[in-house]
Amino acid sequence: MKTAFLILLISALTLTGCFETKTNKRSTKTTTNPVGATPTPSYTYYPYPTPTGTAGPGRPPYTFSPVVAHGLENSAYNGTYVWSSEAMNIPSSVMQTDVKFDVRIKKESPPAKDTIDDNGVICHYVSFPYTKLKGTVRIKAAGSSVYKSMAFETNATTGYSAILRFGDLADFPQTNGYYVIEVITPISSNGGCIREPGHPDVCPYWPVPRTECYSFSVELATDYTNSF
After folding, report:
1. CA 220, 222, 227: angle at the middle one, nearest 5?
2. Residue 84's closest CA among 207, 227, 185, 195?
3. What is the pTM of this model?
4. Where are the chain's structural domains?
């Protein structure tokens, strides 16, 4: 009788759901950037070519690896750096000088579709074919919040900007430490004007939109290198 009673009790509990089979489930969450969202800038150090020779005559100016970036045409981002010598962990000895501190920007070719920019974001679209870039370079003594800025515009034929001679400024900051270079937004190109010649909204320049990518290099000459 006891055995029969136990069998009946187990059957009843099973039918009423008192016995519950538990399955361990591990949820997964996929995070994606919403359409149109701008990723927070993060920067990776890319080694620059090590100059040859000794300090002074014979040592070429420093050339830093090309930058690939998406445009940030929204004015809310104005003043955001797209390249920083400090964020790139360039050795402080490279950024030291007493008098000469010359910076030059070189326009690089428009990045191809599916190129990965310096933030790790894919350039999904083919960039407008630009021949000139325009923007601002600023410098400061390390640890200071006071910047000195100069505008640049690259030449359509040579690809280079005029030399930005920060050391010639009457108020060039003096320091026993090192200097910091930043290239800041907005960066504009003549890509829209090439595509739509004479259009007043995009000629002669327009801010590179966030759907487009562009590329440039930074060069530096100091007391310890040759001039450009």
Report:
1. 75
2. 185
3. 0.74
4. 62-222
